């Protein structure tokens, strides 16, 4: 099996990527930051989340779901075992976790092509598999979680592509 | 009535033959743990491919071990969801085809209800009503079960499942898969009171769980050790982490039973294989004058006997599935 990625949409040239870093000091702050970002999203886009176990990735997505108006009766749970969790919202949210996958072949089986081009906000945890094997996907927004010695989170946002850059501009102005 | 049960929702291809929803004539599990270990987790595509390769031999073996022939099977039950779609489709489609070709009844089974029915395979199943905790890699749910067909969901995890927390902490400690068995073994050598990890009870009156904060605490602790962990320290972390999980699970289950003035508690799902948890619940039950039920060891994790047991009840009650029915990945609403 070969992986057919939606190249037109996601393989964009990186023109002057815009970067920004914010430090959060609690899970609630991480969640609030996610909510703020989610509330500013107005179009389909792809976002990757990287960082070690327990860094706050799923917490951030819980905030994003609030910002995207996912109804309260949906719990935003870890997608580690389920691989893909989809939620309705102002814009549909698709939360994926590639942690347990062994190769990009498996993405084909999961219907990855259809998911990333389905017109929703696609958030992917543990995206290293994609970087590692394809080097093809360019996310609109890459978010990298770093934890310092006091376990505060430095959240780095790196936007490339029009949607990502516009979002980050709005984000820095509010 | 002789039922063939089939389970393929995640990492196990399993088939079992059950008589009258209670007597297990055979139960075959093509365990794939050895394959998964290499990747540090369940690999979905691989799992699905394995299901396709395993389904026929596993069913054959189950029928043979039951001392029967295909002609003796009077109904088929297969897991309908929740689970990985590709994996579910293998077992569910096989069961559909089997039932259609043989002209016998077919029932799609909810995997979570199947776990609750693992208790019905005990020599002394719990009477109704009972309060049950289902804890596994993908689920942490509390149910109040009032009859063969009524399962009231009292609470569930808001982030990580209990079994997932075990797997991820095992990974943080540089240990392998499955995390539950690894942590339990390490914990034997450790002091459960040496590190104070948080107990997340959320609001004390509710029955939801949260294990994400505990996972972060362990990550933080490991980081504070500058990632240098000797054997003693590793064992202490495992024991203290395990204690934190068990305290919360046991507190919530007992509370839920008390809130329903229910005198029977049960533990099902892969995490029920953890003997520290089973011991704690057994002690708590004694303290509160409750009866404690746990499935036989081989029916704790995913298996087809529990699916056959649930399928028997569905078929008996006329709740059949048809060729047009489809599998589902997850329960949508919280």
Q: Characteristics of this structure?
A:
A: 174 residues, alpha/beta, 7-stranded mixed beta sheet, 7 helices, 33% helix, disordered N terminus, B: 334 residues, Nucleotidyltransferase, domain 5, 2 domains, 5-stranded mixed beta sheet, globular
Question: What would you note in describing this structure?
Answer:
- The complex is a heterodimer of chains A (174) and B (334).
- Chain A has 174 residues and is of the alpha/beta class.
- Chain A contains seven helices and seven strands, in the order αβαβαββααβαββα.
- Chain A has a single domain (10-173), classed as Rossmann fold (3-Layer(aba) Sandwich).
- Chain A has helices at 7-10, 27-40, 57-67, 105-110, 112-116, 128-133, 162-173, and strands at 18-24, 45-50, 84-87, 93-97, 121-125, 141-147, 153-159.
- Chain A is globular.
- The mean pLDDT of chain B is 91.
- In chain B, a hairpin with a 3-residue loop joins strand 2 (13-19) and strand 3.
- Chain B has two domains: 2-116 and 299-316, Nucleotidyltransferase, domain 5 (2-Layer Sandwich); 126-294, ATPase, nucleotide binding domain (Nucleotidyltransferase, domain 5, 2-Layer Sandwich), CATH 3.30.420.
- In chain B, 55% of the residues are buried.
- In chain B, helix 8 runs parallel beside helix 9.
- The two termini of chain B are 36 Å apart.
- Chain B is built from ten helices and ten strands.
- Chain A binds chain B through residues 27, 52-56, 58-59, 62, 73-78, 80-85, 99-103, 105-106, 108-110, 147, 149, 151, and chain B through 10, 39-46, 48, 82, 84, 86, 137-138, 156-161, 164, 168, 171-172, 212-213, 215-220, 223-224, 329-330, 332-334.
Q: How many domains, in number, for the residues of chain A? A: 1
- On the 0 to 100 scale, the average pLDDT of chain A is 84
CATH superfamily of chain A: P-loop containing nucleotide triphosphate hydrolases
Order the strands across the largest sheet of chain B as they lie in space.
Answer: 3-2-1-4-5
CATH superfamily membership of the largest domain in chain B: ATPase, nucleotide binding domain
Q: How many individual domains of chain B? A: 2
Which bin fits the share of residues in helices of chain B? 40-55%
- The CATH first-level class of the largest domain in chain B comes to Alpha Beta
Percent of residues in helices of chain A: 25-40%
Strand order, sheet with most strands of chain A: 1-7-6-2-5-4-3
- Radius of gyration of chain A equals 15 Å
Sequence stretches where pLDDT stays below 50 over 5 or more residues of chain A: 1-12
Oligomer kind: heterodimer
Shape annotation of chain A: globular
The fold-level CATH name of the largest domain in chain B is Nucleotidyltransferase, domain 5
* H/E element sequence of chain A: HEHEHEEHHEHEEH
- The outline of chain B comes out as globular
- How many H/I helical runs of chain A? 7
Q: What is the number of beta strands of chain A? A: 7
Number of H/I helices of chain B: 10
Average predicted confidence as pLDDT of chain B: 91
């Amino acid at each position: 099996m070969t992986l057919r990625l939606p190249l037109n949409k996601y393989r964009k040239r990186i023109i002057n990527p815009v970067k920004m870093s914010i430090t959060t000091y609690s899970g609630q702050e991480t969640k609030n930051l996610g909510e703020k970002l989610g509330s500013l999203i107005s179009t389909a886009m792809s976002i990757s989340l990287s960082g070690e176990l327990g860094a706050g990735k799923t917490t951030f997505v819980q905030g994003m779901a609030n910002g995207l108006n996912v109804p309260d009766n949906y719990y935003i749970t870890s997608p580690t075992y389920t691989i893909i969790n989809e939620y309705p919202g102002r814009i549909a949210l698709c939360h994926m976790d590639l942690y347990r996958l062994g190769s990009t072949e498996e993405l084909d089986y999961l219907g990855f092509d259809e998911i990333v081009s389905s017109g929703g906000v696609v958030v992917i945890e543990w995206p290293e598999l994609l970087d590692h094997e394809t080097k093809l996907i360019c996310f609109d927004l890459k978010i990298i979680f770093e934890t310092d010695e006091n376990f505060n989170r430095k959240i780095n946002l790196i936007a490339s592509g029009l949607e990502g850059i516009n979002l980050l501009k709005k984000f820095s102005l509010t | 009535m002789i039922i063939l049960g089939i389970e393929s929702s995640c990492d196990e291809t399993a088939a079992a033959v059950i008589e009258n929803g209670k007597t297990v004539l055979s139960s075959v599990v093509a365990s794939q743990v050895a394959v998964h270990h290499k990747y540090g987790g369940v690999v979905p595509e691989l799992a699905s491919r394995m299901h396709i390769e395993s389904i026929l031999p596993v069913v054959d073996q189950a029928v043979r071990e039951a001392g029967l022939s295909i002609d003796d099977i009077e109904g088929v039950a297969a897991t309908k969801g929740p689970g990985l779609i590709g994996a579910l489709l293998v077992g569910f489609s096989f069961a559909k085809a089997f039932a259609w070709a043989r002209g016998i009844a077919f029932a799609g089974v909810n995997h979570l209800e199947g776990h609750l029915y693992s208790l019905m395979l005990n020599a002394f199943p719990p009477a109704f009503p009972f309060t049950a905790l289902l804890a596994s890699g993908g689920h942490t749910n509390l149910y109040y079960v009032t009859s063969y067909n009524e399962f009231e969901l009292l609470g569930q995890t808001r982030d990580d499942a209990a079994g997932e927390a075990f797997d991820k902490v095992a990974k943080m400690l540089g240990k392998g898969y499955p995390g539950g068995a690894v942590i339990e073994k390490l914990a034997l050598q450790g002091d459960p009171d040496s590190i104070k990890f948080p107990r997340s009870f959320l609001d004390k009156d509710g029955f939801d769980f949260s294990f994400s904060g505990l996972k972060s605490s362990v990550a933080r602790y490991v980081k504070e050790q500058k990632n240098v962990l000797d054997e003693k320290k590793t064992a202490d972390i495992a024991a203290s982490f395990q204690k934190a999980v068990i305290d919360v699970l046991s507190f919530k289950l007992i509370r839920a039973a008390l809130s329903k003035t229910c005198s029977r508690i049960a533990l099902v799902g892969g995490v029920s294989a953890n003997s520290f948890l089973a011991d704690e619940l057994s002690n708590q039950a004694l303290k509160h004058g409750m009866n404690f039920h746990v499935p036989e060891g081989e029916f704790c994790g995913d298996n087809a006997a529990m699916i056959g047991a649930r399928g028997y009840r569905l078929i008996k009650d006329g709740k059949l599935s048809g060729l047009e029915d489809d599998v589902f990945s997850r329960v949508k609403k919280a």
